Amino acid sequence: MVIYLHNFIISRKRYIQIESQPHHITGIFRTLVNSKNNYGCELNNINSAYYKCEAEGTVSFYQAYKTETENPGIWTYVMYECPAGKEQIFHDSNIVTDIKLLKKLINGHKLTQTTVDIKDYLNCKSNEDEYLDIKLPYEWNTRAGREIASLLLDELKALKASSVFTEEVGKKYIKVVINDFIQAAREVLQTNGTAKDFETVQYKVLNKIKSDEIANLIIKHNNYRIWQAALPSKSKAVEHAFNTALSLICRMKS
């Protein structure tokens, strides 16, 4: 059995409507811009589009025209697989679906993305969206908080930039490092410390983290290009991992 959802034919899926977030709307906008560039049409002449966020398992639909039952709008749903014949759509009439924010983007303005905590902020900023103005959590919006958040972001971006840290061992290392850095940062801020204080604490945190596993992975790759691409680095965690690998190599040769 198939069902129709905002002019699209759906099968073997269930949809639960959720509130559209700024990144869903920028995803729709980016889709519209790509269509404009690829087909030479004006944004106002594109009647419908959709944007899938694979990481979330969500899909957002845009409809530019009014029907008998719906005004122009953007609708976002969480998608679930289901057996054929069990397709269903769960609507929520309390959710705002208007296109005011999309019009704001079309007029050249960014959307404001608030973040619930520092992890949310780092996740949003490390997947930078040119159409979003991502705000720090309130308690981090001080001079020291902003400077430390910038250092944390540099760490995360540098870690994600190296191919070594895309493997499971690398992802595990990133998770441990960032979690421990965040905890250390909170403690520094609670005592009215500075970004310099945080940088000092970072070395202490790294010395406590078990890094032999990631160091062995670096050695296993046996590829000097990985070293060239990663070093020198703005990330103390990246430098620490490669320094540990170098120490292990020296021990093997001695």
Account of the protein in words:
The protein is of the alpha/beta class. The chain has helices at residues 22-39, 100-106, 118-126, 143-161, 168-190, 195-208, 212-221, 224-230, 236-253, and strands at 2-5, 8-11, 13-18, 48-53, 58-63, 73-81, 88-90, 111-113, 132-134. The chain folds into two domains: 2-109, no CATH class; 143-253. The chain contains nine helices and nine strands. The N and C termini lie far apart (69 Å). The model has no long low-confidence stretch (mean pLDDT 92).
Index terms:
254 residues, alpha/beta, 2 domains, 5-stranded mixed sheet, two-stranded antiparallel sheet, 9 helices, 9 strands, 49% helix
Give me the secondary-structure topology:
Elements: E1 2-5, E2 8-11, E3 13-18, H1 22-39, E4 48-53, E5 58-63, E6 73-81, E7 88-90, H2 100-106, E8 111-113, H3 118-126, E9 132-134, H4 143-161, H5 168-190, H6 195-208, H7 212-221, H8 224-230, H9 236-253
Parallel strand pairs: 3-7, 8-9
Antiparallel strand pairs: 1-2, 3-6, 4-5, 5-6
Helix pairs in contact: 1-2, 3-4, 4-5, 5-6, 7-9
Strand tally is 9
C-alpha geometry: elongated
The stretches of 5 or more residues where confidence is low (pLDDT under 50) are none
How many domains in all?
2
Cα radius of gyration in angstroms: 23 Å
Tally the helices.
9
What topology, given as strand order, has the largest sheet?
4-5-6-3-7
Please indicate the percent range of residues in DSSP E strands (runs of 2 or more). 15-25%
Helical coverage, percent range: 40-55%
Which quaternary structure do these chains form? single chain
* Largest β-sheet summary: 5 strands, mixed
> Order of SSEs, N→C?
EEEHEEEEHEHEHHHHHH
